[in-house]
Write a structure and sequence with these properties.
This protein is α/β, with parallel strands linked by helices. Helix content is 32%, strand content 25%. It has 3 domains: 214 residues, 3-Layer(bba) Sandwich (FAD/NAD(P)-binding domain), CATH 3.50.50; 111 residues, FAD/NAD(P)-binding domain, CATH 3.50.50.60; 114 residues, FAD/NAD-linked reductase, C-terminal dimerisation domain (Enolase-like, domain 1), CATH 3.30.390. The chain contains 14 helices and 22 strands. The structure holds 1,4-dihydronicotinamide adenine dinucleotide.
Length: 466
């Protein structure tokens, strides 16, 4: 029987990163993955393909609507959806192949098949070619998550789809109805809207982004509505009537009045649930939380069973690739005898709409609920020179800092490339910085990042340009 020090089940960003870190630290590592390609949901059907589609659709939108402002006249701009989707597949293949390369480089043994626990040190791997049992001192469950379904909305992959299918629609829908105004709904809604679909989003809650800052959520909503995305907030889907070439989604408005929303494709994007099926958890004694996630000690990632650990979407916390990666690194370091730690207060959130929405820390309402007194500084992208040069002036930065100590409590960016700028806030949070620390850090001119600095200056009312 093959024996390892560290075996990871699931090769998503949590699992494969953890495997590499463990190998770097001298452990003998194996990784088990049932999908033929490595990288999990994120690389195969999630973060990466959706970003490729967002970038392509943004180029198309720019060519059609924005280049003329730069004096570039692109006539007869046409969409070649087949090529657009093929480019996305190429991007996905390259990043997945990259993970393969990293497994070989770090001498991690890869097993293709479904892993199931048979004891706290043994895993049975089932594949097309049969069954094999391997032994490992430590077993890491990093099996991720799958889309949540709504009863009565049976996914057929054509008219009723999840994100897995919505990254591959063979034609631009005439009317895409999205259930759930979460990250997936907004990102894939943006893609198909830019490519020409009418998009209606039905959402149970009253606002975007859950408990995130209300004013910034409303700001993002206005921008998306301005792009033609139609939101039905506080609407509850009740049932579905599937016809040959259309689907009627029955919803109730906030007063309970019924309403029919008719579209040709319905995307169900109401969240994801941990993937724990057929893992043998119960049989070996791994416990689940009430919400079906694997129960772990939040510092050590230990499950109820010695030698078995879990990280990523399958345990509590936000279902974000970078959260899983950091848990994977911390766990490998702890098992290798070092100290490992994840700072959950400094995890950035990003929604890759355009402009992008990104934040770290608390929003105003969350601070109020905790009775924390705070100061606010804001700055707009329209007063930034680089934004003007780019012709991308929509957006705002909002900084929230402790009223007495000036320590940063929240930082929100809605603006061009917010995704690449938010990490300034991440680093500041990691180092326990104050708003003044950000304001007194030299920011290069002319860059978009100056808006972050201006908002930090505005906390104590000395913003220079706004
Ligand atoms: P989500 O949790 O972000 O949003 C789901 C939305 O659906 C919520 O607003 C919820 O109120 C609404 N909802 C739930 N049931 C509903 C119903 N019956 N009718 C109408 N609305 C309903 O989940 P989403 O967008 O499916 O994404 C899944 C996971 O993937 C999330 O945890 C997210 O963090 C992650 N993800 C992250 C991305 C990023 O970081 N950029 C991109 C895509 C996904």
């Amino acid at each position: 029987m093959k024996e390892f020090d560290y075996t990871v089940i699931g090769a998503g960003p949590g699992g494969y990163v953890s495997a590499i870190r463990a190998a770097q630290l001298g452990l003998k590592v194996a990784i088990i993955e049932k999908r033929k390609t490595l990288g999990g949901t994120c690389l195969n059907v999630g973060c990466i393909p959706s970003k490729a589609l967002l970038d392509s659709s943004e180029e198309y939108h720019k060519a059609k609507h924005k280049l003329a402002d730069h004096g570039i006249l692109a006539k007869d701009v046409k969409l070649d959806l087949k090529t657009l989707l093929a480019r996305k597949d190429k991007v996905v293949k390259e990043v997945c192949d990259g993970v393969d390369y990293l497994m070989n480089k770090n001498k991690i043994q890869r097993f293709l098949g479904h892993g199931k626990l048979i004891s706290n040190t043994e895993i049975e791997i089932t594949s097309e070619s049969g069954t094999e049992v391997i032994k490992s001192k430590h077993i890491i469950l990093a099996t991720g998550s799958v889309p949540i379904s709504i009863s009565g909305f049976e996914v057929d992959g054509k008219q009723i789809v999840t994100s897995d299918h919505a990254i591959n629609l063979p034609e631009v829908p005439k009317h895409l109805v999205i259930i759930g105004a979460g990250v997936i709904g907004l990102e894939l809604g943006s893609v198909w809207s830019r490519l020409g679909a009418k998009v209606t989003v039905v959402e149970l809650q009253a606002k975007l982004f859950g408990s995130a800052d209300k004013q910034m959520s409303a700001y993002a909503q206005r921008l998306l509505e301005g792009q033609g995305i139609n939101f039905l907030f506080e609407h509850k889907v009740t049932s579905l009537d599937k016809k040959k070439d259309k689907v009627v989604v029955k919803v109730n408005d906030p007063t309970g009045k019924p309403l029919d929303v008719e579209g040709d494709v319905v995307l169900v994007a109401v969240g994801r649930k941990p993937y724990t099926e057929s893992l043998g958890l119960k049989e070996v004694g791994v416990e689940l939380t009430e919400r079906g996630r694997i129960k772990v000690d939040t510092h050590t990632f230990k499950t109820a069973v010695p030698n078995i650990y879990a990280i990523g979407d399958v345990i509590d916390g936000p279902m974000l690739a970078h959260k899983a990666e950091d848990e994977g690194i911390a766990l490998a370091e702890m098992i290798a005898g070092q100290s490992g730690h994840v700072n959950y207060n400094a995890i950035p959130w990003i929604v890759y709409t355009w402009p992008e929405v990104a934040w770290v820390g608390y929003g105003e309402e969350e601070l109020q609920a905790q009775g924390i007194e705070y100061k606010v500084g804001k700055s707009m992208f329209k007063s930034n020179a680089r934004s003007k040069a780019m012709n991308e002036t929509e957006g705002q930065v909002k900084v929230l800092a402790d009223k007495k100590t000036d320590k940063l409590l929240g930082l929100y960016i809605i603006g061009p490339r917010a995704s690449d700028m938010i990490i300034e806030a991440g680093v500041a949070f990691e180092f326990g910085a104050s708003a003044e620390d950000l304001a007194r850090t030299v920011h290069p001119h002319p860059t978009l990042s100056e808006v972050v600095r201006e908002a930090a200056m505005a906390v104590d009312k000395w913003s220079i340009h706004s």
